[in-house]
Specification:
about 425 residues; alpha/beta; Aspartate Aminotransferase, domain 1; 2 domains; 7-stranded mixed sheet; 4-stranded antiparallel sheet; 12 helices; about 15% strand; binds pyridoxal-5'-phosphate
């Protein structure tokens, strides 16, 4: 099949059932933003919520807003709203803290539910904070140990034995975009008597997720990537209903207490998902997230997935045709069904090439040691954007404009 031409690509946009959702976003007209998998763009609704919360609720109503503006319940209300996007029935998701902190809570809770077992299994290719937090959990539990896929055995399945308490696994790999079969792996983990903790940072808002149907035990994820909650927006944690009440987390702050305003001397955890909160939550950030979630109420997740596969597939096809022979190697799965909403290419000069692309208004990111990473958020990207991104990459490679020394300078955040 020939590579689609511009007219065919414009026709794809004309038929796109999600095309109107782009209007919800504030985007620089002359840029193509392929980094919504790292920091989602602002929405008009998020900015409006921030203004309302700051001017009316904080500045005018002050302390009364904890009750009057619903601040206190916001973490559970937003949790249920995210729950719809990740296949979780109400009462199992709360928005709180960061993904890193929620990994700590989920791992501890899982270990507590499997007394007599001491092993945590994770992936050596995981997003690093997951591994760093697992190391931290192991350091607090005498006899516990961490075993890694890719180091201690080639696959997670081969690491499952009678000592494994918890498996912490990324649904979509942050670098390659490889997508795991959640239901199948969760079933294998359960057969071994262990609990499954899914990290949804690169799948929440990127594709349909079915936590309840897959039988997942715990899940965590970001709200500042595909969900567009804003820089440092609070994360979420899912605890399956069957574990609520029994599952304990060690950060036993007052917001997780059954009666925080009774000011009792001893801790008694809330019987529901509130137990997975710790202290006072960042309300302004939560309000931005609330606004960002509005657009999601109108999204059909099956249509989102279809568009995501179309965008990423088109990008692979165009890049491999327009940039043939220029040293790029696809690192993402070629089969759309096995891919998240991002595409990674390896190149020896990936950092410089990405900087040159950003200078030309195509914003992706670099992941060490040699990956060019492009995220395709279906809510606001058009097929013509994919074409321009691929054409710009071809220009950068052909002209070798990336050789400009300023593109070799590495910033703190890549
Ligand atoms: C982005 C990301 C995180 C980020 O964790 P924070 O605590 O929010 O900084 C964690 N895990 C994965 C897989 C990620 O992609």
């Amino acid at each position: 099949m020939p590579v689609p031409d511009r007219a065919a690509i414009q026709a794809m946009d004309a038929q796109d059932p999600l095309r109107h959702l782009r209007d919800a976003f504030i985007l620089a007209g002359d840029e193509i933003y392929l980094d919504g998998n790292s920091l989602g763009p602002a929405t008009l609704a998020a900015q409006q919520e921030l203004l309302t919360a700051a001017r009316e609720e904080w500045a005018r109503d002050m302390i009364r807003s904890w009750n009057g503006a619903g601040w206190f319940d916001l973490p559970v209300r937003l949790g249920d709203r995210i729950g719809r996007l990740i296949g979780a029935a109400p009462g199992q998701v709360v928005v709180a803290d960061t993904t890193s902190v929620n990994i700590y809570k989920a791992l501890h809770a899982a270990m507590g539910l499997r007394p007599g077992r001491g092993t945590i299994v994770a992936e050596s290719g995981s997003f690093p904070t997951d591994l760093y937090m697992a190391e931290g959990v192991v350091s607090t539990l005498p006899g516990a140990r961490l075993r890694l896929e890719g180091v201690d055995a080639p696959t997670i399945e081969e690491l499952l034995d009678s000592d494994v308490a918890a498996v912490l696994v990324n649904h979509v790999n942050y670098k390659t975009g490889a997508l795991r079969d959640m239901a199948a792996l969760t079933a294998r983990i359960h057969e071994a008597g262990a609990l499954a903790i899914w990290d949804l940072c690169h799948s929440a808002g990127a594709l349909p997720v079915a936590l309840d149907a897959a039988g997942a035990d715990f899940a965590v994820g970001c709200s500042y990537k595909y969900l567009n909650g804003g820089p440092g927006a609070p994360a979420f944690i899912y605890v399956a209903k069957r574990h609520l009440g029994q599952a304990r987390q060690p950060l036993s702050g007052w917001w997780g207490h059954a009666r925080p305003f009774a000011f009792e001397t001893g801790y008694e955890g809330d019987p529901g998902i509130r137990r997975f909160q710790c202290g006072t939550q960042p309300i302004l950030s939560m309000r931005a997230l609330k606004g960002a979630l509005e657009v999601w109420d109108r999204v059909d997740m099956a249509a989102l997935r279809a568009k995501s596969i179309a965008l990423t597939g088109l990008f692979i096809e165009l890049v491999e045709s327009l940039c043939a022979g220029r040293g790029l190697a696809l690192e993402s799965p070629r089969d759309g069904a096995l891919r998240g909403s991002q595409v990674a290419f390896r190149h020896d000069h990936a950092h410089e090439i990405m900087q040159a692309l950003i200078a030309r208004g195509v914003i992706g990111d670099f992941r060490a040691p040699a990956t060019l990473r492009f995220g395709f958020a279906p809510l606001y990207l058009r097929h013509v954007d994919v074409l321009r991104a691929a054409e710009t990459l071809a220009e950068v490679l052909e002209s070798e404009s990336w050789r400009d020394p300023r593109f070799a300078v590495k910033a703190a955040v890549t």
